[in-house]
Amino acid sequence: MSVLRVVGRWILRFLIAVLALIVAVVIWAQFSPRPSVIAIDLLFRMSSVGKVDEKHAAEADKESTGRTDLAYGEGDDETLDVWTPRERGSEPLPVIVWVHGGGWIGGDKSDIAPYLKLLAAKGYAAVGIDYSLGPDTHYPVPLRQTDKAIVWLEKNADDLGLDTDRIVLAGDSAGAQIAAQYVAMLGDARYAKEVGVEPSISPDQVVGALLHSGPYDPRKALKASGAMGWFVRTVGWAYLGTKDFDDPRVEQATVTTHLTDGFPSTLVTAGDDDPLTAQGKEFAATLKKLGVEVKPYWAKGLFHEFQFDLSDAQAQQVLTESYSFLAKVTAP
């Protein structure tokens, strides 16, 4: 009987400790986005969303080679990978600079490496960059790091065999927003000054933008309800460093309202079942009104970042469209 009492006491203590932990986390979450960020990042890591299937990843390995974890800055997160065709001539290669997704709080350049290898095999230097994540780092640091990475590529162009007068900015999900905002600043010096990040390259060097499943209007995303609302408000708090979504930086990060006719030719894609697709369609429509050449692709019945699941016919179609788009905008 005494043994049962001892076991019962231990179980009670354990339950009290678990309850205390839950209460502590709930209280913590009122003052910091970190508890929710940890949960979201765990979900990202467990999900196959945004990842190339094993078959096509294996094919990519056969056709390309890379130099990985090259430091473009002094920060731990400031590294990049450069993927190129296994067989290449002596001419410098056009450059695709890809900003990975992950809600500004997760993700890694390794996630997109198989996809970049497939692009590289077609005759490009496909560069995946890492950048600092929220809530440890806030907007607009990733934009500064994108610029820093491109400057590093320019300085090392001869060694790497790059043609940095033919750059395509690309990204998926949050990375698409970062890439699109960087390109928008290139064509609008006043906007760049407002953000506090003045790009170091000429607008003429960026010949195209390739954007998948991006949130181009955070103002609208923050109005979502339910689980989507919780997700958006968590990553928004982590990225901006504030729970005040009337903060002027929310409008500032809304790329659609800062587009100009200087934006380069763009391929923009999303899936019909993705809650961000409405923003993609408005983004594409705005570019079209400005006279910018836009190639949109809206996949039927598919969700966020369907583009990487190359076992799907529509994802393969987007990859084929990407090959054609890249060949066109990077033509000498």
**CATH level-3 fold name:** Rossmann fold
Percent of residues in helical segments? 40-55%
What oligomeric state is this? single chain
Number of strands: 8
- Number of helical elements: 13
CATH architecture: 3-Layer(aba) Sandwich
Give the terminus-to-terminus CA distance: 86 Å
| Estimated structural class | alpha/beta
Count of all domains: 1
Q: What is the CATH H-level superfamily?
A: Alpha/Beta hydrolase fold, catalytic domain
Spatial order of strands in the largest sheet: 1-2-4-3-5-6-7-8
Q: What's the overall average pLDDT, rounded?
A: 89
State the low-pLDDT regions, or none: 18-26
Q: How large a portion of the residues is in β-strands, by DSSP E? A: 15-25%
**Could you tell me the radius of gyration in angstroms?**
22 Å
The topology string of helices and strands comes to HHHEEEHEHHEHHEHHHEHEH
Sum up the overall morphology in one term: globular
CATH class: Alpha Beta
Q: Largest sheet at a glance?
A: 8 strands, mixed
GO molecular function: hydrolase activity
Keywords: Hydrolase, Membrane, Transmembrane, Transmembrane helix
Pfam families: Abhydrolase_3
Protein name: Alpha/beta hydrolase
Task: Provide a descriptive summary of the structure in words.
With 332 residues, the protein is α/β, with parallel strands linked by helices. It has one domain: Rossmann fold, CATH 3.40.50.1820. Helix content is 48%, strand content 17%. The protein has 13 helices and eight strands. It has an eight-stranded mixed beta sheet, sandwiched between helices. Helix 4 (109-120) links the parallel strand 3 (93-99) and strand 4 (125-129). Helix 3 (54-63) crosses helix 4 (109-120) and helix 7 (174-186) crosses helix 8 (189-195). The protein is globular and about 80 Å long.
